[in-house]
Amino acid sequence: MKRRFTQQADGIGVVAEINVTSLVDVAFTLLIIFMITAPILQGGIEVDLPEGVSAPLSAADALVVSIDADGQIYVDDAPVTWEEFDAALPLALDRFESDQVFLRADGDLALRQATRVMGRIQDAGAVLNIVTDPDPSRRSP
Question: DSSP letter at 112?
Fold first, then answer.
């Protein structure tokens, strides 16, 4: 049988165990905070991608151009107008080591707007990759 108390000089027993209750409380609180803030920190442009069969791609070293449902163009998460897009695209391509451009266009976007952006990307000499949603079951109804 273990001795849980140590004897002090004045005869009062002292508990010699570590109380981990407060440590567990802090750990669970931090876990909850991280679980709540992680989806918020992912950031990006909210785009409802069209369905399609595709393989996972790594866009870490490539430029991402997004078009939301309203037709707003984003070059690497920065909103630009159609007039600014022609100037912003070559500048953004120079920042990346790759000539790959990933286009994230909303599925409800008119094809005319998407093809205008695709044409400008190809005119800039970049390799165009269209991002689709490979798993339609991930979508919320």
Answer: H
Q: Check: pTM over 0.85? Answer yes or no.
A: no
Which two tokens mark 55?
Answer: 């393989």
Q: Is the pLDDT of residue 138 over 60?
A: no
Residue 38 DSSP code: H
Closest by CA to 89, choosing from 122, 114, 43, is 122
Burial (0-12, 13-18, 19+ Cβ within 10 Å), 116: middle
Q: CB–CB of 52/92 below 8 Å?
A: no
14-23, pLDDT tens digit by residue? 666 777 888 8
Strand-strand pairing, 13-15 and 63-67:
unpaired
Q: Which of 70, 133, 125 is nearest to 99 (CA)?
A: 125
At which residue do the structure tokens 């407060």 appear? 22
Domain hosting 92: range is: 63-138
Residue 47 in domain: no
Strand order across the beta sheet in which 63-67 lies: 78-80, 73-75, 63-67, 100-105, 127-130
